[in-house]
Amino acid sequence: MPHHTPLIATLVSAFVLAFVAGMLAQRLRLSPIVGYLLAGVLIGPFTPGIVADQAIAPELSELGVILLMFGVGLHFSLGDLLEVKAIAIPGAVGQILLATVLGMGMGWLLGWPLGAGLVFGIALSTASTVVLLRALEERRLLETTRGRIAIGWLIVEDLAMVLALVLLPALSGLLGGHADPAAGERGIGLALAITFGKVAAFIAFMLIVGRRVIPWLLERTAGVGSRELFTLSVLAIALGVAYASAMLFGVSFALGAFFAGMVLNESKLSHQAANDSLPFRDAFAVLFFVSVGMLFDPKILLNQPLAVIGVFLIITIGKSLGALAIVRAFRRPPEVALTIATALAQIGEFSFILAGLGVELGLLPKEGRDLILAGAILSICANPLLFAALDRWQTRRDAAAAAKAEPEEEEVAPGPPLPEGDHIVLVGFGRVGSLVGQRLHDAGRPLALIETNRDHLEQARALGIAGVLGNAAAEGVLDDAHVTTARALLVAMPQILEAGQIVKRARALNPSIAVLARAHSDADVAYLLGCGADAAIMGEREIARSMCDSVGGLDRYFARKQEPDFLGPASAA
Ligand code: AMP
What we know:
The protein is mainly alpha-helical. It has helices at residues 6-27, 32-43, 56-74, 78-109, 114-125, 129-138, 145-175, 181-186, 188-224, 227-249, 253-264, 270-295, 299-303, 305-329, 334-343, 349-360, 366-404, 433-442, 454-462, 477-480, 496-509, 522-531, 539-562, 569-572; strands spanning 424-427, 447-451, 466-469, 488-491, 514-519, 535-538.
């Protein structure tokens, strides 16, 4: 090669290996995350073969964190954040305290000084943004109450870690590490005051200035009419605000990006901004896992197996039980408590940063950092399995509840009873489904809706439409809507591959059912028909048809307009 290209080499090796290992993991019915981590281990310095650049990889992965948090902000309003604060603040603080005590206990068992145990414990207390968001997104939980609580919780953890990163150098001398002379002079009180002041200034700045300037900027760019410039403005806002917030106010990139997204949430264009940043987000989130894998030295598993198991248990069991107890204490239903506990039963990026700082300050032994990394990798791998166990538990519980037919302590009011036969099953109550559902309901057609989104289901139920909460592609959900005795199935959701699965499943359960699905292109139409749909309706074609049909009306309108007694559009109708 003519010149040294570490960035390209790192990107290429990370993407290629992550793709191959991710596919392999998928084939083995494991989460692709396991594959991405493995790819990281393979290109890391502790295994033979290619070694990617260890400085560039974590920086690239930070881009994933920024874009993910920006995306979350786009779906989150200030009201949502304030709504969950009553549970998220005590929850996160309680969980951090518990994890810290458990970590300190483990440090004590390993014979470390108190300061080492403290850093170790704090590092075990915060969950990874990427892992949490991916898990919630995959289950479509981001916009549910439990998803919002988990995100609020994560934001409080994030703020606590920003504080810990600032305070640690100031406290280092006291805790038995290298004293930071600058911090010593300033004193802890001052360091704390400065940090709080900066975070408060950041929030005030975003809510007062950012809230006006950022949506204005996006709307101005959209007005220019260039798609390329629009996408660029989305990226520039997400990355620019995250970077500037970190540099000017000392908050994390993730927090800066979250606020950038949140102030855009009120703009009409937030939906498109989310779509535009999606491919970047997914690609860089993969790099996050690869870069975690790169840090991992598998030798620790052989040298310290018991300590690794101990760390793993603190993260997955200790922290979860704490979260579970706190959420239950707030009288939330068990499924909400379990989802939040599972989502937070892992550690990630902040833990590495804190552990790195601890080692640098002479507070944490190197072995502590290796244990944290091993705990992170194992807990990230275990997370999808825990979620799968949770899904199984929920299915069993729902089935048992249905058998007993007892009113459940549910987040959603039960709604009208489901029709049992000769009805129409509708999947999705979004932009298309809600129009279809309302029309059919107004026309008196018996209807059973299937929705993954609690809010949408609640809207439908408020209109008197019966429905079930769940993913129509998941085992048993179509049965719950009595698809076997239904007359027709209308699939009104935009995700084509999933829609295809739903069509196939419904066809297998009820060969004579009429199936209509929603498509976006000719290829989609062919795919859905291949899956067994009787018809696939393509939005663009229908718009064209409707435009043509309207031409006749326009002709009449203009003809009437020429007449002397024309009184306006109403008379031409
Ligand atoms: P829209 O994109 O506005 O047309 O909305 C699509 C709707 O379909 C949303 O309300 C989703 O929550 C819902 N939806 C998407 N996938 C599924 C699924 N697999 N099962 C049930 N509802 C779904």
